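Below is our example:
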Amino acid sequence: MPDKYIVTLTPEERSELMQLTRRGTLSARKMKRAQILMLADKGHKDDTITQMLNAGISTVHRTRQKFVEGGVEFALNERPRPGGQKKLDSKAEALLIATACSDPPTGCCRWTMQLLAERLVELNVVESLSDETVRRTLGKKQLKPWLKEQWCFSTVGADFVWRMENVLDLYAQPYHPEEPVVCFDERPCQLIGETRVPRPPKPGRPQRYDHEYERKGTCNIFGFFQPLKSWRHLKVTEHRKSEDFGVCMQYLVDGLFPDAQQVHVVLDNLNTHTPAALYKTFKPDEALRILSRIQFHYTPKHGSWLNMVEFEFSALSRQCLNRRIPDIEKLRHEVTAWEQRRNRDKTTVNWLFTVDDARTKLSRLYPQTTLS
């Protein structure tokens, strides 16, 4: 039976189709339609084209028909399809977004897609609404009401700036053996024991340990870090009371830097990090003697990033403490080995942020002054 729609390409159309198929940038559908037109132009029947291109007979027939009715462009491209009617108009979308940004209903910790859809139905905005429509609408605005981020809202002002510049200026000073700069802080550590003996790794199988564990209590790690000498020291204690802080300061001036005239200590604003802690620990004469050889430099509140010992604690957590350690003696042994290796390798922090950088990059934090 002869084909009803005869394809006869002009030389220009034939050349255009050849170039399109050679570029390799056409979609699979357009490529197949172009090949159908070229084969039909050569006189091949629909059955033959179907077998050569592994295409459906209806596809070959429709491509011929579209070419005869509208030309090459019409045959290659899809007919415009009317989209479905939008479920939410601009006002309804605005209401949905405002609702998602408001407090959730009583008894719920957050808005869900289903709760938002039900709320719009309750408000007679729409008769019905699916969760998926709500999700797509919020997705266009990159709004995710089910997500929450913990953030630190610091109070920034003259006190923040003064403490920040005081620490940054201290870091910019050259090394002076009689006035060493030591960054100090502490971190809690949980002691955890195994309930079953872990199995060592084997080729093709990682190490295995049981999901159950036994809590063995908690302890504390004090950290001393002298960046200009690439030196650190960690002291493991059972707790972190004011007396422990006082003992650390005594150890700092008498045990670690006995020949220093004054030790500059960078630390945060923890309630135990005060000169009063030494008077709670020692007799007044001893407390005053220790404090006369120490000058405290407090980082701003919520500005612990200015304390370089935080980098050491971060490395310690990732390299040494990221496992189960059952008792304080084992912890002391592991922490000491980590400390010795870091000191031997002369690992330090190359601090580059200066006062001038702060005044340029953090200018928004500085209060407006009335006098020059």
